[in-house]
Amino acid sequence: MGGSGGSNAFVERQVNMLQSNPGCATAKYNLGVMLMEQGRLEEAKTLFEEAIADGTRMFEAYVNLGYIYFKQGNLEKVEECNRLAVQIEPRYARGYANLGFVYLQMEKPDEAIEVLQKAIELNPRIIQAWCNLANAYLQKGDLDRALETNLKMLEIAPDFSLGHNNLAYVYYLKGDMNRAAEHLKQALELGFEAHPEFLKEMEPYLNNTHDRGNGHCPSTSSDA
Length: 224
Fold this sequence. Notes:
The chain is built from twelve helices and no strands. By secondary structure, the chain is mostly helical. The protein starts with a helix and ends in an 18-residue tail after the last helix.
């Protein structure tokens, strides 16, 4: 949709559709999406709830409801909404990816790993699922799996700055400062704003890039 004029025309069409057919779940969903994008979350929430009540397979409405609950800080409702979404559509990768993010926030890495692996199985191109899966392994203290997952993610998205930062951090935890510096430098070159404390720790290695080889210390490895 181009510009505010197009947006207003779209809203007007949905409103007109609802006036002629008050039970149209699709119009309620579409209008809810537009209001959500405008930051009118409570109005959007009401429309998504009505769309779910009036429609049958409104799994995307559940996911958007989950987003609103996340903005409101209610992780339990985010989990519930995305669980309902994947019950309706078991092959909906985004729903599983969202669940993984929620479990990560709840510090439930095992649950996060299970659903994130499912999301990646359904759609290997969801970069955030790879990122959160690596972080779930990190949360468990499994540095080898975190490293492996970050490396796979960067094969798919080599310019993902957060991925390079996260990989640098895993390498740092494993004691491989050369590789940590290499990937942190790439993250910075791609525009990532690294944590100031991590930057301070890594500064001597970043400043000595000309001395770095591919040294083999123990190996090591983005919203949330």
